[in-house]
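Hi there, hope your week has been kind to you so far. It would help a lot if you went through both lines with me. No rush at all, and the record is pasted right below:

***
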Amino acid sequence: MYDGKHGFVSKYGEDLVELLDPKEGERILDLGCGTGDLTEMIVQKGANVIGLDNSPEMIKAAASKYPYIPFDVRSATDFIYQEKFDAIFSNATLHWVPDHRKAIDCIYNNLKTGGRFVAEFGGKGNVDNIIRALRDALIRKDYADRAEKKLWFFPSLSEYASRLEEAGFRVVFAAHFDRPTLLEDKEGMVNWLRMFASSYIENLDKEVVNEILHETENRLRPTNFKNGNWYADYVRLRVVAYR
């Protein structure tokens, strides 16, 4: 489903690769590489790249598609490489890491002096409509405990830039912007919920899950369904920082 229905994750990361501007022979880590499409794009620029992801399934898919690229299953809060990197790149990953301080420290400690960190992920306000509608639907079905789950970390620009500076980084660019994102086909919103919000509905009866998802979808129709298409109300945070 990730590759088939949510290709926008990699597509929107393509201009982030341009911002990274990888050079021939540079050693680069793709942190949260998913199924490896952007990792491969960086390799095509001539860099020596390692892809890292916390999901064995994602890494298995990446290694199958790009067997000539080294991939590792590791956590963003607990990784160390003997040879440090010229750059660490991360697209659509760090909002999945609640312990952002540990992640920032890992990133800093694995960069060479003068190395750069280039990242984009969900910022303050990201998918607010979707989260609110899903939580309301869960509460109406007497799953208030599930509605209180905290899956993501969506910081403001000032909050995240300050954390980077506290760790020793020099932040040279930061942007916080809206990016409504088109979802594939008429089941786009339900597919998005099944893919990215699965923790809210895991281990529930299939019929109950369907009721929750379709109630969520109905609540979102006035705000997130436009001209016959579903959109995720994405708000992104993009940063460039140097060690």
Observations:
- Residues 2-127+151-183+233-242 form a domain with the Rossmann fold fold (CATH 3.40.50.150).
- The beta strands are 27-31, 48-53, 71-73, 85-91, 111-122, 170-178, 181-182, 225-226, 229-232, 235-242.
- The mean pLDDT is 94.
- The first strand starts at residue 27 and ends at 31.
